[in-house]
Amino acid sequence: MYPELNPFTPGSGLRPPRLAGRDREIAAFDLIVARSLARRTDASIVLHGYRGVGKTVLLNAMRTQAENAGWLCIDVEAQPSDTGAVRLRQQLGRKLHEAAEQFKKGKAYSEAVRRALGTLTGFSLSLGVVSIETAREPAGHRARSGVLEVDLEELVEDFADALRETGSAIGIFIDEMQDVDDEMLSALLTVQNRAGQKEIPFYVVGAGLPTLPARLSGARSYAERLFDYRHIGALAAESAVAAIKEPLIRNNFHIDDDALAMLTRDAKGYPYFLQLFGREAWNLTGSRLIDVDVASRALASAYQNLDQGYFRSSWDRADASERRVLRYMAAQEQLDEYGVDDVAENVGLSSQAFVGARESLTNKGVIFTSGPGRIAFTTPGMPGHVKRRSEQLG
Ligand SMILES: Nc1ncnc2c1ncn2[C@@H]1O[C@H](COP(=O)(O)OP(=O)(O)O)[C@@H](O)[C@H]1O
Ligand SMILES: [Mg+2]
After folding, report:
1. Which atom of ligand 1 is nearest to the CA of 21?
2. Staple partner for 207: which of 25, 47, 61, 265, CB 3.0–4.6 Å?
3. What is the Cα–Cα distance from 344 to 347, expressed in whole angstroms?
């Protein structure tokens, strides 16, 4: 009913009607921001977790917090491959200029601000983002060496003076940070480290897949100490309830306890599913009431949607051995976790083939190591999808 007013937001990076269960992360970042205003520097934050858990949404919320406190914020999204590396530099250059334009507004053109903008122009020239002809400000002599690490550090240093005048900070918010190329990653970590030592208010705030912490440590051994790493996962039961129930109540809809229990049981706290189930239930009810009947039709419709889209590639991209592993896991009813030894023994593959399939499924983010000797699906509902796809194949 009233699909045009539907508040739920299944998708990528779409801010949900109720950002549930992330108070601790928001508070931790609030403290960093508050301390930056008091000129106290801290380790920054890196969020990591599987897709669909709400990392992008949380990163965006943190950026808004920082912007509201007057930080100079730059947000970029990394992409794999060489073209991704080029695009990242372009994005960084362009967004730095946009942020600098904002920053300039209403400010006295102090010596520090003038120097910062000159260095920014030099940095952009060195990145190849602007040419001398198109540059808005005369370039200074700094941040033009062509060595990313050196240039970025000079840029941050020169901005720091201008920012200190106003008690502000620079935040570079990087989504999909695991895909940042080696050169850029090393530069960012080095500059973050030096900034900490020199008490320069510069923060790289990142979000990425569970491989991200290891990637950062691999790039710089001190990376572990640069960041407060936060694992972002499924929502706790009461937050999952709030994520569905509050937007409904706010819009004068009502949901039966049993219907709510059905939706949250299947979603297992997984934010993307909560949004999808909420959206379907809203659209399918003929009144303002969501009862068990509506909830079961909502789930059926949601799974149809997931089979066509979200889940589809996991199965399509799996080879024969991987499908065997998926099928075996899916056939073990009602399990959230699987013993590796049990799967290895019973899946009907050579141990070498099993090891390969497990590694490949892990790299693709379909399964993960949930504990010593244990594996699990990264997404709830995957067992059902595997069964339906296997049945189609006969
Ligand atoms: N805390 C939350 N409460 C409710 N829904 C959320 C929450 N965080 C994210 N979502 C929803 O989950 C989905 C995935 O969010 P997204 O930030 O794109 O995840 P990720 O970046 O981890 O893949 C979106 O539909 C979003 O609206
Ligand atoms: Mg994301």
Report:
1. 1
2. 47
3. 6
